[in-house]
Amino acid sequence: MLTGTDHDALRRDFRWSFPARLNMAEQCLGHDPERVAIIEHDGAPRPVTYGALTAMTDALAHALAAERGERVGVLRSQSGSTAAAHLAAWKSAAISVPLFKLFGPDALELRLRDAGIRTVVTDSEGRALLAPFSDLRVIVPEEGLPEAGPFQTLETGPDDPAVIIYTSGTTGAPKGALHGHRVLTGHLPGVEMSHDLLGQPGDVIWTPADWAWIGGLFDVAMPALALGLPVVAARMAKFDPAAVARLIEDCGIRNIFFPPTALKMLKAADVSLPGLRSIASGGETLGAEMLDWGRRAFGLTINEFYGQTECNMVASSSAAMFPARPGAIGKAVPGFDVQVIDEAGAPTTGEGDIAIRRGAGSMMLGYWQNADATARKFRGDWLVTGDRGVIEDGYIRFVGRDDDVITSAGYRIGPSEIEDCLLKHPAVAQVGVIGKPDPLRTEIVKAYVVLRADHAPSDALAAELQDHARRLSAAHSYPREIAFLDALPLTVTGKVMRRELRKLAEAEIARTTEPNP
């Protein structure tokens, strides 16, 4: 754990130290069995002790009977059984793969096939989603598990594979970032820093972010268990500020990770949430106005943090350590060498690519079965994030992305996956997908479509294409706007020029915001 609030001293003295034997299940379950591990909330709070979580984990591990290195899918929302499914896989030296409930069949099939998943732990809702995949073994803990005793954790080390988390990309299919058992330890300094030394007496943490994403699973759920803190598991079908206030009161929540869109919705609803000790936010930079509102609404400074699936929690603000600087995403977390580098891979004082030096605790082992993509992610000793920025007085300021990934309501969405989905519709000849600026979601997914000769543009067809994408890909990433073009702007090699499509979107926004004469 981090000790003290002298950020410079913490950075100077920090060294990664991993034992030869390291298993994330042992990290998360090695606490007093009577202590509360998870507070499940579905109308009322229900505490789950570490003893009960261990028993659930062991029963699932016996039921999985997974081989070392086998990939196990986890298609569940926030719950004790969701945590137990990951822990059971790790106890078995298997590799867990979080899957999102809002994925459509195409998105699910891509991940199931790419990871070679044979078994999925889910619930009754997830069983229905998996019905098209008849070759899967499906385990639903709520339907009962065979009686079994303790499960002996298999021996693993810090670099033994433990979890694959799929990340969006700009070209081709999503890639699976493969992490070893050190990834949880690698997250702890940033999680502690972003919550002003998380782990204080009385701390109870929650996030509305789904545990299928690295932000929910490794920014909140697993770090809380590793630190011996209660984590709240409460699925929200739709973010509701009033329900959030009730949840905080019911469960005694003191620490929250709010994605920026959630903060904007709380601000719009004029909701104040006193009594919290820390709020962290990541995914986009908060401006001075949002920080000032946060101080009025919560009585504290929102701490921003930064990272990505390949190497997470690398930079953070911390009101306990140094003053927030509006427009900056904080300073490098102890244990992470974060620099802005030039094309040659050398640190620069000007604008450049935000990059993290090899050796960081939360850095991926590589992309799953994709050595070429892994090699492209690095520039010498640096993992290149794809984001542009500058460093001023130690503060990292995000300038913009160097790729076409769309950030919408806290999700990172790859345009290629949406384009591939729309191209399966018989009316679509060509398509280009971009992120269009949006005041609530940061960006919305917008698709520019060229139709086949026997189809004509219409509102009805646009709605049909939206439904097609929502059904096959994912409910969170379907195009909220569709525009029809006679032709797409293409390079000489036939690639869609998304920068030209973004100019079209910017022109549309300008027209709709122009004052009436």
TrEMBL record:
It holds the Pfam family AMP-binding. GO terms for biological process: acyl-CoA metabolic process; fatty acid biosynthetic process. InterPro entries: AMP-bd_C, AMP-bd_C_sf, AMP-binding_CS, AMP-dep_synth/lig_dom, ANL_N_sf, Mitochondrial_ACSM. It comes from the Bacteria. The keyword Zinc-finger does not apply. One of its GO terms (molecular function) is CoA-ligase activity. Residues 31-368 form the AMP-dependent synthetase/ligase domain. Residues 417-495 form the AMP-binding enzyme C-terminal domain. Keywords: ATP-binding, Ligase, Nucleotide-binding. Belongs to the ATP-dependent AMP-binding enzyme family. This is Acetyl-CoA synthetase. It comes from Paracoccus tibetensis.
